[in-house]
Amino acid sequence: MTEDELIENPLQALSIISETINSTYEIDVLLRNILDIALKTVHAQRGVILLYEGDTLSVKIAHNIAAQSEDHLDQFSRSVVYAALDTGETIISYNIVDDIRFNNSESVSEQKIVAAACLPLRIRSQPVGAVYLDSTETRGRFRPEMEPFLNAFAHQAALAIENAQMYDKLIKENRNLQKRLVTQNSIRGIIGSSPAIHKVHEMIRSVADVDATVLILGESGTGKELVARALHYSSSFRDKPFIACFCGSLPETLLESELFGHKAGAFTGANHDKKGLFEEAEGGTFFLDEIADISPRVQVQLLRVLQEREIKRIGENTVRKINVRIVAATNKDLREEVKAGRFREDLFYRLNVITINMPPLRARGDDVILLAQHFLDRTLQKLNKTLNGFSEDGIDALRRYPWPGNVRELENCIERAAVLCKGEQITAHDLQLDIPDVDSVHAQPNGKKNGRKLKEFERTLVQKTLQESNGNVSQAARVLGVSRRWLHYRIKEWGL
Ligand SMILES: Nc1ncnc2c1ncn2[C@@H]1O[C@H](COP(=O)(O)OP(=O)(O)OP(=O)(O)O)[C@@H](O)[C@H]1O
Ligand SMILES: [Mg+2]
Q1: CA of 428 to the centre of ligand 2 (A)
Q2: Residue nearest (by alpha carbon) to ligand 1 atom 29
Q3: Which domains does the chain have, with CATH numbers?
Q4: How many Å lie between the centroid of ligand 2 and the Cα of residue 223?
Q5: For labelling, which of 23, 121, 228, 263 has a CA lying 20 to 30 Å from the CA of 416?
Q6: Is the CB of 361 under 6 A from ligand 1?
Q7: pLDDT tens per residue across span 109-147
Q8: Element spanning 408, H or E
């Protein structure tokens, strides 16, 4: 736009400006556009946009001026801004040296300012901020004739800013509501809205208050411990203890004494009488994690506890009644362990009264995105960092990666990415996921490809996904990212 065009056809100029500033709802981009246009319109060297935040005027964007708030502006600029805000009218000072309103300011000579202007930003007659501009070289177009044009521009800019602020507020509110919805729909932090996780929620709700033994099965990192806690804290005995014992990590004798307690002198080092964990958990829940790893001797003892609901401390003959809900978990295939003779069949049936099967993360569809967002929010809060979610290729990578380490792997991956991310959004590159492609899935251990065809890979993948979603075609289709019709067609074609 040349000066003549601007003066001769101000309407056209305004319409171009209006189109530019209304092309975005992103407040930062919008303010940059407004300031750029303002600087160009009057040929200013310096400029700043200030907006009210409560009672303080904060600098939202600046060009050649280092300032964070009105206090950082020099004395002259400040007095021009105040004059505009007080009167609600655009101030143009074409020749400052002769302008009695401002020419006694020291900073005019210090900064060598020759011309300045300030456009108050008002919405429904209320001041919301100001655009300040000045020039140290030429007087540019800081001319009184520009006033009507600058007024109209300021009006447009104020409206666009209000819209963008409202949009920003709505987006934030919407995110908060969605977050609340996710946590409300989840039982004590078990996030997910896939059918597979809904089933787990339902199970927890229906068995929480029953004191039958519960066995939680699932791959490593699927949330078995989380479910054990959720069971306890949704039960009527939630204010009684929740005690967990990690059976796999303790040697046999130590585990026995941990579980059942001992009498003083029962063995070397047993200096005092000690309650076992079963007793500690009285009235509440006792969680036996990694149950498949206990020795045959402890298996027998445990069987007795489950049958008789009583224990004996080591070295003692007194029988003590216990009243605890027992929850056990393992990532091993217990039936296989029984078959292989490593786990007692009778104990297996005692434990396997109510079973909760934790689905692997890859069978939970878009829960991976919900969980990723949840872990990201949590990590950012810890780091006191802000990021704008995931990029498209990031989301795509999260969906395509098979997550062999399940939710725990996802949690670690997001934490690492949030720390390392240098950009505004977490990208596939930040996530560092080694996504298997068709070739690597069928790569031989010796590195040679076995030459199987794409169709066979498809078939194996479809079959596996169907198994993981317990034959639920809609769910499998979602996980695979294909239509139900396509999937039905393949099932028929391949006779799955
Ligand atoms: N649905 C979920 N929502 C939120 N967080 C989850 C969910 N599932 C798992 N997590 C988180 O993932 C991590 C692993 O979960 P957890 O320790 O319960 O798994 P696990 O099945 O017991 O694993 P392992 O077999 O290795 O012991 C935990 O930090 C847990 O809080
Ligand atoms: Mg565990």
Answers
A1: 28
A2: 408
A3: 3-170 (3.30.450.40), 195-359 (3.40.50.300), 362-435 (1.10.8.60), 439-494 (1.10.10.60)
A4: 7
A5: 228
A6: no
A7: 788 889 999 999 999 888 999 999 999 888 888 988 889
A8: helix 406-420
